[in-house]
Design a protein that fits this description.
heterodimer; A: 116 residues; mainly alpha; 4 helices; 66% helix; 0% strand; globular; B: 6-stranded mixed β-sheet; 23 helices; 14 strands; 12% strand
C-alpha cells in the first residue's frame, strides 16, 4: 500500500474514531459484525452499488453508513476524484485498519470475555 | 503511549497500568489503561458500589415507583437531593426514599418479616403508587434474606401491585458498573414482555441509557415527538415502570449511555431482534447526526432535518459567542463513565477547549478506547484514580477547569481549580441545542468568575494589590479578543430562559400524515 493511501486511510479512521460509536461494541464478535455491517454499506453507497435493506439491522447499519458517507464527501474532497475500483480498495483498506485497531490489535481484555 | 506512574503511587506500582499518556503517532494498539478491576488495596478509590450503580444510577430515575432498599438506612442516603434526575410527576422518586432500616438484631435473627412489614406500610402510605423496586444490600444479602420470596408473597396478597427485585448488593462487582449490569439483566428477565402497550405511531423507539439529568430526557423527547416518533419507554430517566415492561414492542433502541445500558439493548437485540443505534445527544454536530440517523432508520429524515435547521439557526450564534471566549482553555474531563467519550472530542471542536486529561471512575476498557480515540495527543488518561493522583495531575496539568463529580470537584476547588458537576450539571439541561449553550455558559462562568482571581491570592504570603478595583467576567474574558469578535452583531450570549423545561411540558405536537416506517 502506498503512503498516500495509508495517509488517506488514517484520515478516515480519525474521523470514525472522533465521530462514531458503532465500532466500539463490547465483544469481538459484535465488533466484527458492526464493522462489516457499516463499512460494507459505506462502500456500496460510495460506489453507487445496490444496498441491501432487508432487515431492521440492515437499516440501522445503513443509517450510520449514510451519515458517514456524507461526512466523508464533505471533509475529504479527494474521495470524489477516485473511481469505483479505487474507492472500493480504499474502503477495504479502511476496514482492515479498523478491524486491527478495534479487534485484532485491541488491548481491551473484555473483548473475549465469555460473560457478557 | 507510555504508561504513567504517579509519584504518589510509587508505593502501589500496580497503578502504573491504569494510566497512559497519548503520544504523537500512537494509537489504541500501543497502550490502554486497565479497567473495571477491583480497586488495588491501598488506593483510596472514588468509586461507588454495585448497589449504588443499580439503585441510585439506574433504578431510581423511574418516576412512578416506590424504591425500597432492604438494608441499613445509610445505604439509601444518596437519593435525597444528591441526584438530579428529575421527573414530570413532581419528582416523586426524589422526594420519597425508603429503607427497611435493618439493625444488628436483624443481622442475627433475619429481616424478612421486617421487609414484608415495610413493603405493606409503603403501599399503604402511598395508595396511588402500585409499583415498587426492591434492592438487596450487603447486609441483607450476607444473611441470606430471600427478598424475591417476600416480594411474591406481597404480590399474591395485593394483586394490583407489581414488584421488581434487584439482587445487586454492594459487593457484587468492582464498582457501580457491576450494578448497572445486574439491573439491566434483571429487568429484562423479570419484566420486559409483561405489558402490551398502546402503539400510537408508525415509528416506535426505546430511549435507553438516558437519566433525565436536569431534564435532558425531556429535551430529547421534544425532538422525537416533533418527528412524530413514539417513545415507548425511557430507560430510565423520567421513565414509567409499566412502559419499561413493554420495551419489546419498539422498532429501534436508541442508546445514549452505553456504559450503563448497553446490556439491555444487546439482550433486546438478541431476544427480540430490535437493533441498537448508539447516539450522542451532546453537541450540535453529534446531535444533528444522531437525529438524522434516527430519521433515516424510519424514512423520515426530512423531519429530522427541519429540527436541525431550526435549532441550529436559533442557537449557533450563542454557542459561537462562548467558543470565542473559551478557545485554548485547558480542561480535565473527569466524569464517571460515558461522558468521557461523549464529550472528549465535541467540547474541543465546538467550545474550542483543550482536553488535557480524561479519567473514568468505573468505566471499562471499552470506554477508555472511545475516550482516548476521541481526545487529542498529549492527554493523560487515568482509570479509577485516587485522590492523591488527582491532586498530582492537577499540579502537573494546571487546567483552567475540571468537569467531574462533587467529591473530586470539592477537592479541586481547594487547590483553586474551578469545577463543573459532570454528573448532575450546574445549570442544565445540557443536552439538546439550547442545553449545549447552557453548558458553554456554565464553563464560561466557571472559568471567568472573578472570585478565582481573588482566591488565587494567598494572604499569608502574596502582596494584596490595593490599586486595582474589582473586575467583571467580561473584563477577563474579552481582554484579548479582537475588535471584530468583541463588537460582533451576530454573536450573542445565551438568551434562553432560566427554566427551559416548563414550556416543553405543556407543548402540543403536530399530527403527521401516516407514512409507514421503512423498517423491514
Amino acid at each position: 500500500m502506498d503512503d498516500l493511501t495509508k495517509d488517506r486511510i488514517e484520515e478516515l479512521v480519525d474521523y470514525i474514531m472522533k465521530h462514531c460509536l458503532w465500532q466500539f461494541h463490547s465483544r469481538t464478535w459484535d465488533r466484527k459484525d458492526q464493522n462489516v455491517g457499516v463499512l460494507t454499506k459505506t462502500r456500496q453507497l460510495l460506489c453507487k452499488e445496490r444496498v441491501e435493506l432487508e432487515t431492521p439491522a440492515d437499516r440501522c447499519y445503513w443509517a450510520d453508513a449514510v451519515c458517514l458517507v456524507e461526512a466523508f464527501r464533505h471533509n475529504y474532497p479527494w474521495l470524489e476524484k477516485m473511481d469505483k475500483t479505487e474507492t472500493a480498495a480504499l474502503i477495504n483498506g479502511l476496514h482492515e485498519r479498523l478491524d486491527f485497531l478495534t479487534i485484532t490489535g485491541s488491548l481491551n481484555l473484555e473483548l473475549t470475555d465469555q460473560h457478557y | 503511549m507510555p504508561h504513567h506512574l504517579f509519584k504518589c503511587s510509587q508505593c502501589i506500582p500496580e497503578r502504573e497500568k491504569h494510566a497512559v499518556i497519548k503520544g504523537p503517532g500512537e494509537d489504541l494498539s500501543h497502550a490502554l489503561p486497565l479497567g473495571y478491576l477491583s480497586t488495588i488495596p491501598g488506593s483510596i478509590s472514588e468509586r461507588g458500589c454495585a448497589y449504588c450503580g443499580a439503585k441510585h444510577v439506574i433504578g431510581t430515575p423511574m418516576k412512578d415507583v416506590i424504591h425500597l432498599s432492604h438494608g441499613p438506612i445509610g445505604c439509601t442516603y444518596d437519593t435525597w437531593q444528591t441526584k438530579r434526575y428529575i421527573s414530570d410527576n413532581d419528582n416523586f422518586q426524589l422526594k420519597y426514599t425508603y429503607a427497611t432500616d435493618m439493625k444488628e438484631k436483624h443481622i442475627i435473627f433475619g429481616a424478612e418479616k421486617l421487609l414484608k412489614q415495610n413493603i405493606l406500610e409503603a403501599f399503604k402510605a402511598f395508595p396511588d403508587m402500585k409499583r415498587m423496586t426492591l434492592y438487596q444490600t450487603c447486609a441483607s444479602a450476607l444473611i441470606g434474606d430471600d427478598i424475591s420470596a417476600i416480594a411474591q408473597e406481597v404480590m399474591d396478597e395485593l394483586p394490583d401491585v407489581d414488584i421488581f427485585v434487584c439482587n445487586s448488593p454492594g459487593f457484587a462487582g468492582p464498582s457501580q458498573s457491576g450494578g448497572h449490569h445486574k439491573i439491566n439483566i434483571a429487568w429484562i428477565n423479570q419484566k420486559v414482555g409483561t405489558v402490551e402497550p398502546k402503539i400510537t405511531s408508525d415509528y416506535v423507539i426505546n430511549y435507553v441509557g438516558e437519566y433525565n439529568i436536569q431534564g435532558d430526557q425531556e429535551v430529547m423527547h421534544d425532538y422525537f415527538k416533533r418527528m412524530g416518533i413514539q417513545v415507548l419507554s425511557t430507560f430510565t430517566g423520567n421513565g414509567s415502570y409499566d412502559d419499561l415492561r413493554a420495551m419489546h414492542h419498539a422498532h429501534l433502541n436508541v442508546l445514549e449511555c452505553a456504559r450503563s445500558a448497553e446490556y439491555i439493548c444487546n439482550e433486546l437485540r438478541q431476544r427480540y431482534g430490535i437493533p441498537r443505534l448508539d447516539i450522542d445527544g451532546f453537541g450540535f454536530e453529534a446531535l444533528s447526526a444522531s437525529l438524522r440517523k434516527v430519521g433515516l432508520f424510519f424514512g423520515i429524515e426530512d423531519r429530522a432535518q427541519a429540527i436541525i435547521d431550526e435549532e441550529t439557526a436559533r442557537w449557533k450564534p450563542e454557542l459561537d459567542w462562548y467558543k470565542e471566549r473559551l478557545k485554548g482553555k485547558k480542561v480535565c474531563l473527569w466524569p464517571g463513565g460515558s461522558k468521557l467519550w461523549h464529550w472528549a472530542h465535541v467540547i474541543h471542536a465546538e467550545f474550542g477547549v483543550d482536553v488535557v486529561s480524561v479519567y473514568t471512575k468505573f468505566g471499562h476498557q471499552g470506554d477508555m478506547e472511545k475516550g482516548i480515540a476521541r481526545c487529542e495527543v498529549g492527554a493523560l488518561a487515568i482509570d479509577d484514580p485516587n485522590e492523591l493522583e488527582t491532586l498530582e495531575a492537577l499540579e502537573m496539568l494546571r487546567p483552567d477547569i475540571i468537569f467531574t463529580g462533587k467529591r473530586p470537584g470539592e477537592v479541586a476547588k481547594k487547590v483553586r481549580v474551578p469545577y463543573l458537576n459532570a454528573h448532575a450539571y450546574h445549570n442544565g439541561p445540557w443536552k439538546g441545542y439550547e442545553g449545549w449553550v447552557r453548558f458553554a455558559r456554565d464553563i464560561y462562568n466557571g472559568i471567568y468568575s472573578p472570585i478565582h482571581k481573588l482566591a488565587l491570592l494567598d494572604i499569608s504570603k502574596d502582596a494584596i494589590p490595593t490599586d486595582k478595583g474589582f473586575v467583571t467576567r467580561a473584563m477577563l474574558s474579552d481582554a484579548d479578543l479582537s475588535d471584530e469578535v468583541r463588537s460582533s452583531t451576530t454573536l450573542r450570549q445565551y438568551t434562553g430562559k432560566y427554566d427551559s423545561l416548563s414550556d416543553l411540558r405543556g407543548k402540543t405536537y403536530p399530527r403527521f400524515e401516516r407514512r409507514p416506517a421503512k423498517v423491514a
